[in-house]
Structure formats: structure tokens, C-alpha cells
Amino acid sequence: MSTEFAPVSPPDETAxxxxxxxxxxxxxxxxxxxxxxxxxxxxTACQGQCPPRPFGRPRVVVxxxxxxxxxxxxxxYPSEVTGQMVANFLTGGAAINVLAATAGATVRVVDMSVDxxxxxxxxxxxxxxxxxxxxxxxxxxxxxEVRTAIEAGQAIADAEVDGGADLLVAGDMGIGNTTPAxxxxxxxxxxxxxxxxxxxxxxxDNGWMRKAAAIRDxxxxxxxxxxxxxxxxxxxxxxxxxxxxxxxxxxAVRRTPVILDGVVSxxxxxxxxxxxPGAREWWVAGHRSVEPAHSLVLExxxxxxxxxxxxxxxxxxGAVAALPLVTMSARVLAEMATFAxxxxxxxx
Length: 348
Ligand SMILES: O=C(O)c1ccc[n+]([C@@H]2O[C@H](COP(=O)([O-])O)[C@@H](O)[C@H]2O)c1
Ligand SMILES: Cc1cc2nc[nH]c2cc1C
What we know:
Distance between the termini: 65 Å
Number of domains: 1
Bound molecules: nicotinate mononucleotide, 5,6-dimethylbenzimidazole
Strand order of the largest sheet: 2-1-3
CATH architecture: 3-Layer(aba) Sandwich
Number of strands: 5
Number of helices: 15
């Protein structure tokens, strides 16, 4: 078994230059579509083709898992909600199902480590264990489990790209998962616990104090291994966040663009950039979550979010909310008339 990633090559520079030049020809004042122009240039560079193709198969993969640290009272909801929401995703009743249907994406759910045996076989093919270890006092995973979870994330990204996915989103579902996410972010950005503790699903002040203590204890263990990404995933992430990190890294290896979601995929993205340097060039930040640690991720990866809607749901929801903008940015380059085509005068 291996935790190696093939090298990441950057998006295509020639296609990027062609997209910049094409924007200057389209019937609008230069630069007038603002960041939609930059976004279209990024899509073109990722596809290596100007004008870009419309997306054929935008795909959301929701990675579900439970976390032992939830027993410390760090969430506003009980662990059984994770498995119940997996069932809800499968019957199409969750926010991500509705948002994805609206934006033209399809949704897949993967049970990596839900603390239940109820998920159907189709979603448990990569399941590593029932719940990850309580990271304030023990490792989230064993050596074998972290490797299995990395291989799962890689295999899922490969299967999606081989199946035609041309734009990927990693969603997360796991009661308690903002605690490991916050520890990872603190460890990799050199932040203090108080700078990363957020309200997650909506904890009260006592819950906030319990969560701060759990993050402090988890960070003490995580800091010992913060320069070794696989060891950091093993001690701190759990199987779900580990698989997301590998999925994001492998998407970049496979030259497939990704819209990042909130604090949990953000924590995974920080590790993915360590596993596969340069992967961040294949990602755009869909939104800024209200979780304070998410802003640290965006700053660290130098990503500017497309939306700021005060969302804090997870599931890939903030990424999919931004998908229509990504779609528009590509269609502008592909479908707008040029000054020459439309007979519009370019200069005084
Ligand atoms: O995406 C985010 O930024 C985000 C912020 C807060 C909460 N969540 C979601 O809420 C759950 C974790 O919250 P908590 O309070 O149980 O740690 C998990 O299912 C996440 O998908 C997600
Ligand atoms: C109901 C519910 C849905 C979610 N989706 C992502 N995290 C969630 C947390 C809860 C509690």
C-alpha cells in the first residue's frame, strides 16, 4: 500500500493566455466582468482548451464519518444524525441534493467511518471503521486505516474522473467534524486554539468551552506530527477527512478542477497541498464559511472565495452554490460575440 501521489502539473499556460486574449475581444468593456473573467481564464487553463467546453458532469462526493471526540460534547447534535443524514442524501432530501439539482450537478455519498451499520452496501464499499478515535486523547486512525482511507480518496477521484466528471466538489457530513478540522488548521497555520474554535452546528457558550478544550488537547498531539501530512491525518483527521484530502490531491493529479466548500474540506485541502504540492492551482474557493478557521485556510492557500453567504452547512453546499458562477464564466468565453463578429466598435 502507498500514500504517494503522482506529481501535480500546473493548468495549461497557453490556454490561459488564449482566454485572456479572448476576453479582450468579447463585446464588453475590458475587464468589466471582473472576477468572472479570472474564473473563466482559470477554467480554460484547467481544461487546456480555449474557448472552454461547457461542463458535462459536475460531480459532488459527500464523505461521511463520525468522530469519537463528539463524546466530549463539542457539537449541538448527536452522532446518530450522521447516519440519518446519509439516508437523507440517498433519498434526495438534503440541501445538497436540492442545490446540486438546481446547479446541474449529481451527488454521490460515501460512508467512510459512520458509527452505524445502516448504510446500504453501495455507500460502504470504502468504509474504514465505525467512528474515528477521540483525537483529544488517542489517534483518529491506525497506520493501516490511514493508508486505506488515502487509497479510498484516490480511488474515488480516479473513478469519478474516469466516469466523465469534469468538475469535482468534496462535501462532508459528520457530527463533530469541525473539531478535527479546526485542529488540523491550527496545526498547519500555526494558530492558537482560540483562533480556530467556531460554533459548528450551533453550540452554546458551554459547548464552545468544551470544544476549545478538546481542540487544545488535540492540537497538543497534532503539533508533534504537523510536518508529516500522513501522520497528521492519522492522529487527527479521521477516515472521512483523510479521504477528502486524498480526493482533492488526486483530482489535481488528474488535472480536474475542484470547487472547494467550507471548513472541513478546507482543512483537508491544507493537507492535500502538502501531499501533492501545486494541487491548489486546480482549486477555486466556492465560499467563505462563517467558521473562523476557514478564513485561515483561505489566507494560507491564497484563495479568494467566490461567495460570502454566511453559510455553515457543509455537504458541499457552499461550493455548489458557486457552481452557477463557474458555469457562467465558461459560457461567457464560449458563447459571447466578439467585437468583430458583432460589428461593435472597439475604440474611440
Ligand atoms: O462547511 C462548514 O464550514 C461547516 C461549518 C459548520 C458545520 N458544518 C457541518 O456541521 C457538522 C459539523 O459541525 P459540528 O458542530 O458537529 O462540529 C458537519 O456535518 C459539517 O458538515 C460545516
Ligand atoms: C441536520 C444536519 C444536517 C447537516 N449537514 C451537514 N451537517 C449537518 C448537521 C446537521 C445537524
